[in-house]
Design a protein that fits this description.
heterodimer, A: elongated, B: mainly alpha, Potassium Channel Kv1.1, Chain A, 6 helices, 63% helix, SKP1-like protein 19 (chain B), SKP1 (chain B)
Chain lengths: 515, 117
């Protein structure tokens, strides 16, 4: 806040309309902040504006370099593919060399063509300058490793490496100051994973890992004790579809301060989520469950004993596969049986209690029009006694190839479900708002709405977003006439904005015929 | 009464409008973004500078970010002449001096015509 004195200097009385050069009158640190939104090419070029601007660029602490931008704005004539890119690296080197030596806080680099020696050179300079935030984006494939010198490992507070194609990383020391980590398509060895995610990384709070590959390791442990937000997107992208998960090993997370957790990917061989007392929101989207998974994947997230890791969450978002495989009646029966076999009855009862999702007050689910899924939902409601808000989204219909269509008709006939009166704690005392989107007018859909209306004793809002084109159906008028347990409930029909289907939903997730 | 000697009444009023909107309990992120767009769209350049100084002094991150971004948008990828004209910057350089500086930083001026916009 040493703004005061420089502020006084710039507070000259000014006319109503701005024909005076007030931009130049702004103090240097505000100009630096303005420059942090510009590409460094524009920043260096301000040196010719006037004497006041001659050397402002030399102390800007936020540097943005963009190869694409540089080539586009410097080269109108057609040149050899590589030449402008080498000129770009010359530009970076001159810019760094002619700075006034003040602290560089952030370097952000977009490079569509990865020249690893240049990147590693930049990393060595960044180490010497004790750069705090580093962002490497958009590079393409290289077999050479990106190497982080020891000093850099110790001074970085924020690291983002988002390449278009996998790049291997090599680190030489624990990232002891790192607060935020964002890695996409990075190949790491077990050793690197440890230097990034172990309990020595005391400052680490936010981790985002997408499509990362881990070599030669049985289990990845994420033990950073101050970790607050963790997102793992464990899929390989291949031409806009996803392919089976990039790492197939076990995952172990023990983070006592974890507030939000998100996992998108296939089922893993082993999964443990421990010490989750402060967890507030969790989102699990399973993209694939291999056949015969019960044997190989005993310790997976959906194994009832592991589901306990999520029981402190206040908000939960679950995809169809979680509902289908994790919450059917027989899975829960298996759970109880396991407890009775392996522990004394008293201990078993205690564990049973901890399965209750006591803190859950916001639940988002994805369902299909199938009795198994609806039963899964009912089970989950039984274990969420304090739920207040329920959001259900029915999965978009998939394109069925002609050969499969007859088979599908047969399956649909199997999946009918009838509503029933049932005293479920959350529905009787807490659920106030229910929203169902992408609802069509079929039997099973209406039965579900009937179930929620006739058991929701304190329900206030029931919002229905019909599937596009179904709005005027007669079936919806039937809906309004269903018996309602709550006198206050208001049923409203809203526009369903067709959501943009994320790329990981277009692949071969949960084939329906695997019942 | 807390005196704020470095900010005038008008700017302070605008800053308070911004803060009121952003600390509203049920304003969604969408609503806040829309508000920011309208709020900043109508701002004259002079007001932007006042807002930047005020936001920096009062340490209001969100507003400071938005305002600086807007000022930067005005300078992004524009020729030197355009920037001078728009921001009313008087150049004390003679044309020879200017050519000299450009030569010194030739690595930043490659392939650019002197009068391109």
């Amino acid at each position: 806040m040493e703004m005061a004195s420089s502020c006084k200097r710039s507070r000259t009385p000014r006319p109503k309309k701005c024909v005076v050069d007030r931009l130049s009158a702004l103090p240097d640190d505000i100009l630096h902040r303005v420059f942090s939104y510009l590409d460094f090419l524009d920043v260096v070029r301000t040196s010719v504006l006037s004497k006041r601007w001659r050397f402002v660029w030399t102390s800007v602490p936020f540097l943005n370099f963009n190869m694409d931008w540089f080539v586009k704005h410097n080269y109108n004539k057609k040149l050899e593919l590589m030449e402008p890119r080498y000129k770009f690296w010359d530009f970076i080197k001159w810019a760094l060399l002619l700075r006034d030596g003040s602290q560089i806080i952030r370097i952000c680099l977009y490079t569509d063509n990865t020249i690893t020696e240049q990147l590693n050179g930049l990393l060595r300079v960044a180490a010497r300058q004790k750069v705090q935030e580093l962002c490497f984006l958009d590079g393409d494939y290289t077999a050479d490793e990106l190497e982080f010198p020891r000093v850099l490992c110790e001074t970085l507070t924020q690291l983002t490496v988002n390449f278009r194609d996998t790049i291997p990383l090599r680190v030489t020391a624990v990232f002891s100051s790192l607060r935020s980590l964002n890695l996409t398509r990075v190949l790491i060895s077990c050793d690197v994973a440890q230097k990034l995610l172990s309990s020595d990384c005391v400052k680490l709070e936010n981790v985002y890992l997408e499509d990362c590959q881990v070599r030669d390791v049985e289990e990845i442990s994420i033990l950073a004790c101050n970790l607050k937000n963790l997102t793992i997107v464990n899929v390989c992208t291949y031409e806009k579809f996803w392919v089976v998960g990039s790492f197939d090993s076990k995952l172990r997370i023990s983070a006592p301060n974890l507030i939000s957790f998100c996992y998108i990917g296939p089922m893993l061989r082993g999964f443990a989520l421990l010490n989750t007392m402060s967890l507030e929101s969790a989102s699990i989207r399973l993209l694939r469950v291999p056949r015969g998974y019960e044997d190989e994947y005993k310790n997976h997230l959906l194994c009832p004993a592991r589901f306990i890791g999520l029981n402190h969450a206040k908000a939960l978002t679950l995809s169809t596969l979680v509902v289908k495989w994790g919450l059917q009646r027989d899975m829960l029966k298996v759970f109880i049986e396991c407890l009775k076999l392996h522990c004394s009855l008293a201990y078993g009862e205690l564990l049973w209690d901890t399965f209750i999702l006591d803190n859950l007050n916001h639940l988002e689910l994805e369902l299909r029009y199938n009795a198994n899924y609806i039963e899964g939902l009912v089970n989950l409601l039984k274990f969420s006694p304090n739920l207040e808000a329920l959001f259900i989204r029915f999965k978009e219909a998939r394109h069925i190839p002609r050969s499969q269509r007859k088979k599908k008709k047969a399956i649909e006939n199997r999946s009918s479900w009838e509503s029933r009166l049932e005293d479920i704690s959350c529905l009787s005392y807490h659920v106030k708002i229910i929203r169902i989107s992408n609802l069509d007018g079929t039997e099973i859909a209406l039965e579900l709405v009937k179930f929620l209306l006739q058991n929701g004793k304190v329900l206030e809002k029931m919002e229905i977003m019909p599937r596009n084109g179904e709005r005027k159906q007669k079936s919806f008028s039937k809906l309004v006439a269903f018996p309602k347990a709550s006198s206050k409930v208001v049923i409203s029909f809203l526009e369903y904005a067709q959501r943009k289907i994320p790329w990981f939903d277009r692949g071969d997730s949960d084939p329906e015929y695997d019942d | 009464m807390i005196p704020l000697p470095l900010i005038d009444g008008r700017t302070l009023a605008r800053v308070i409008t911004y803060l009121n909107k952003h600390t509203e309990d049920d304003a969604s992120d969408e609503a806040k973004r829309k508000f920011d767009e309208e709020f900043l769209y109508g701002m004259e350049v002079g007001v932007l500078y006042d807002a930047a100084l005020a936001a920096n002094y009062l340490d209001i991150g969100g507003l400071f970010h938005e305002v600086c971004q807007r000022i930067a948008d005005g300078m992004m990828n524009k020729s030197v002449e355009w920037v001078r004209k728009t921001f009313h910057i008087e150049s004390e350089f003679t044309s020879e001096e200017e050519v000299q500086i450009k030569k010194e930083y030739a690595w930043a001026w490659e392939g650019v015509d002197s009068n391109a916009d």
